[in-house]
Amino acid sequence: xxxxxxxxxxxxxxxxxxxxxxxxxxxxxxxxxxxxxxxxxxxxxxxxxxxxxxxxxxxxxxxxxxxxxxxxxxxxxxxxxxxxxxxxxxxxxxxxxxxxxxxxxxxxxxxxxxxxxxxxxxxxxxxxxxxxxxxxxxxxxxxxxxxxxxxxxxxxxxxxxxxxxxxxxxxxxxxxxxxxxxxxxxxxxxxxxxxxxxxxxxxxxxxxxxxxxxxxxxxxxxxxxxxxxxxxxxxxxxxxxxxxxxxxxxxxxxxxxxxxxxxxxxxxxxxxxxxxxxxxxxxxxxxxxxxxxxxxxxxxxxxxxxxxxxxxxxxxxxxxxxxxxxxxxxxxxxxxxxxxxxxxxxxxxxxxxxxxxxxxxxxxxxxxxxxxxxxxxxxxxxxxxxxxxxxxxxxxxxxxxxxxxxxxxxxxxxxxxxxxxxxxxxxxxxxxxxxxxxxxxx
Amino acid sequence: xxxxxxxxxxxxxxxxxxxxxxxxxxxxxxxxxxxxxxxxxxxxxxxxxxxxxxxxxxxxxxxxxxxxxxxxxxxxxxxxxxxxxxxxxxxxxxxxxxxxxxxxxxxxxxxxxxxxxxxxxxxxxxxxxxxxxxxxxxxxxxxxxxxxxxxxxxxxxxxxxxxxxxxxxxxxxxxxxxxxxxxxxxxxxxxxxxxxxxxxxxxxxxxxxxxxxxxxxxxxxxxxxxxxxxxxxxxxxxxxxxxxxxxxxxxxxxxxxxxxxxxxxxxxxxxxxxxxxxxxxxxxxxxxxx
Lengths: 442, 290
Prior knowledge:
- The complex is a heterodimer.
- By secondary structure, chain A is mainly β.
- Chain A has a single domain, classed as Porin.
- Chain A has 5 helices and 20 strands.
- In chain A, the strands form 3 sheets. Chain A has a 16-stranded antiparallel barrel. A two-stranded antiparallel ribbon of chain A has the order 1-2. In chain A, strands 12-13 form a two-stranded antiparallel sheet.
- The termini of chain A are far apart.
- Chain B is mainly α.
- Chain B folds into 2 domains: about 40-145, Orthogonal Bundle (Cytochrome Bc1 Complex, Chain D, domain 2); about 165-290, Cytochrome Bc1 Complex, Chain D, domain 2 (Orthogonal Bundle).
- A two-stranded antiparallel ribbon of chain B has the order 1-2.
- In chain B, helix 6 packs across helix 9, helix 8 crosses helix 9 (about 245-260) and helix 9 crosses helix 10 (about 265-275).
- Chain B starts with a helix and ends with a helix.
- Classes of the chains: A mainly beta, B mainly alpha.
- At the A-B interface, helix 4 of A face helix 2 and helix 4 of B.
C-alpha cells in the first residue's frame, strides 16, 4: 500500500514538474509597449515580473488612465497580439525512478533541446474602461488551451474601487506565478501554489492555477492599497461546467508603503476557501462521470501572508501558507464511504522567499528557496515528514533586447527539489534541472 | 607622385583634426554632463540625487526622452506631441514666470501627474524619493540649471465666489485676448490658427480642446488652470497672459473655461441657467477686428 502510494506520489511529482515546465506561460505583452511607446522595463521589474508601475497599469485595466487608452486612438494597423516562445537545452535528473529491467530503482537523467510551448497573448482595451485578456497556450505538441480568457469592466462609476472581471483568470495574488522569473522543470513554478499532500485527491485547491469565475477588485488611486474577492468554479480552471455545482472563494488584500531610499514595500494576505465533490455519479462505468453528478462536497482552505520588500537593487518576495484539506480529500475517500480509522484533515505549512538582484533593467539574478512541511498527516502513524518539500532555484536572466517592440532574454537556471518519502522504496525523492534557454516575445 | 602623397597627407591631417575636434567636443559635453551628475533636487524634506536615478531613468524614461535627454528616444518618432528635450531646460508646467526655470516641485509634480494629451503617464507608483531623484536627473541634462536659478512662483489670489456676472466676464476675456484664435470659438481646439501652430522646435502642436476631458495639461484644479494661462506653457505657442489679464479677470476666465468642459460642474449649470452659450461672444470677434 505504502509502496503503491509512493509510486503514485513520485508519479505526481514528476508529472507536476513536467507540467510546471510545459505551462510556463506568463503575461508579458509587447503589444502594450507598442501601444503606449514604453519599454518592457517600464512595467516589468524584469520581464515578465511586474513592477509597481506595471501592477498599477494592470489594475487600471491595461490603461495608463490618460486620454489615449481607448483603441480608437491607435493606428488601424495596431493589433494587440503577442507571441512568446522559450526554446532551450535542458537537463532533468531524478535520483530514484522505478525501473523494470533492473528490478528496482535507479537515477534517470535526460537532456536535449526542447521548447516549452507557445503562448499567444492578446489583451488591452475594447473601449475606455473595458478591457480584456486572452492567453492561448500550447504544449510542445501545439495542443492549445485557454490559459486566460476574460473581460473586465474597469473603474465602474468612475471609481478605481469597482472593477469586475468575468472569465478565466489568474487569482489576484501580488506574488504572481504566471509572471515568475523561473522556468526550469524543478523550479519553474511555486510548489506552494500547487501543493497536494501525498495520498490527497484534492486537485482544485491550487492557487497557482487560473480559474473560471468572477472577480471584484478595488485599489486606491496610486495603487498602494489593493483588495479583491473572487468566486469561481471548483474545477481547477477546466472548461465546461464543473462536475458539481460547487464554488471556491479567494480573497486578497495588500498595502504598500514607502521607506525612504529603500523603496516601496508591500505586505498582504490571501485566503482561499472552497468545497469540491469527492464522489460522482457515473454512467457506463467509473470512467464516465455524469456532468453535474458530483456529490459528497468537502472543504479545503489555503491562507497566508505575502509581501514584496525592496532593499535598493535587491527585492524579496515572501509567501507563506497554511493549508488544510478535509479528511475525505486527504485520504482519497469518496463520501459517504467510511473514512479509514482515525482519519483527519491533512494540514501543512509552507513558505518561500524569492530574491532578485536587479543589477540593471536588463540583468537580474534570481534565487528562490521554498519549504513545505506537513503539520498533520491524514492517517495517524504516517511519517510526519512524508510529502515535505524543499526546493531551491538559482539563475540569471539577461535581456539584451528590451525595447517597445520585443523582448529577448538569455535565461540560465538550475533548480533542485526533494520530496520526503516519495521514492519507490519509500525514501526521499530528489530531482534537479538545468535550463539554458532563450525566452522571447514579440 | 610626390604631389599626390602631399595631397593625401593634407586630407588625412584634415580628417584627423576634424575627428579629434569632434572627439574633444564630445568629451567636453560628456564631461560637463558628468559634472552635473552631482545635481540635487529639493522637494519639501526630500533631497533627490541625480546619480541615484540613473537606473530608473534608463528603466522608465529613456525610451522616449533618450539617453542624452534630448527627446530623441527610440519611440520619439512614433509619438505626438514629441517628448521633451531636457537639454533645453524649457518646461511647460511651471509655477514660475514665463521664460524662467521651474521649481523642483514643479518637475516633481509633472512626473507624478503625467501630462494629459501626450504619452507621458503618471509615474506616481514610483516612490517620492525615486521621483525626487529623477527630478535631479532631468535637471542634470541642462546647463541652465547650473547657471540660472528657478524663477519666482506666481501668486494665485484666493478664488472669488462664482457669479453669473463673472461667468459672462470670463467669456468676454476669452474673446478680448483672442483665446478663440487657437482654442476655437467654442473651446474645441479648432480655432483659425490651430492648424498652423508649432512648438519651439517648429513641430506641429494642437491647442487644448476644453470639451475633451476634465484634466488640463498641467493639473486638474481651478488653481492649475489659473496658473497655466498666467505662466504660459513655455516651448509652446501658449503665452503667459499675466501682462494682459488682471488676476480677477483670470478667475473669470477660469469659471468660463470650466463651463465648457464635459463633466457636470456648478459653472456649467450656471451657464445653462443664464443661457450663456459657448462661442456666442466669440462669434462676433472677427467682425470686431475688421
